[in-house]
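Cross-check.
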Amino acid sequence: MTPGSGPMPRDEGPIRVLIADDQALVRTGFRMILEIEPDLEVVGEVVDGAQAVEAAHALAPDVVLMDVRMPRMDGISATRAITDDPVATGRVVMLTTFDLDEYVYDALQAGASGFLLKDVPPELLVAGIRAVHAGDSLLAPAVTRRMIETFVARPRATASPSVLASLTDREREVLALVARGRTNGEIARELYVSETTVKTHIGRLLAKLGARDRVQAVIIAYETGLAHGGW
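Predicted model, tokenized:
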């Protein structure tokens, strides 16, 4: 492959994972966990954000495990660069040592599809990677609550509500519930519909908003003021 030529086409196969962390012990531990899974493949390890951006462009991994704090370029800046790169199409999962991380909102706004603690049990790490690759998000209610707290301290709306103009009333209602951290099952019970119907609404509103996943949809809900009610 010549520099800047982008990744070579590949057949459908294992979920390709790139690990970006400046701690060798963390990288080794994750690699050991992932390599025993037949449907997962570690395609690279990097030690800082700048290398993560280069590797994501060259290798086109499906999922990038990205440490928040790294030298040269932090994980948030690297995530923004990767999600803005049309070649690096993988989803980014942020890795953090602390559950109460002050960078949660900035990372999600940069395009991260969720968060995992570095001491996550192996089975949850594997399940999380599979879920993100399938298009779901790792946005726990605790993370959603921190986003709410962040927006309480910020202006109520930073984007025009017109962004939501293409949504039906029911789709707005579903989006508002997603933004409050509700699961599909909880939304179904609250609206007296099936989970399949909820998934259909979510799929349609993601397409209309041009959102990559639920995380981006939640960001839009807060930035337009929808999550604060009053629509």
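The two ends are 51 Å apart (CA to CA). The beta strands are 15-20, 40-46, 63-67, 91-96, 115-117. Passed to J.P. for a second look.
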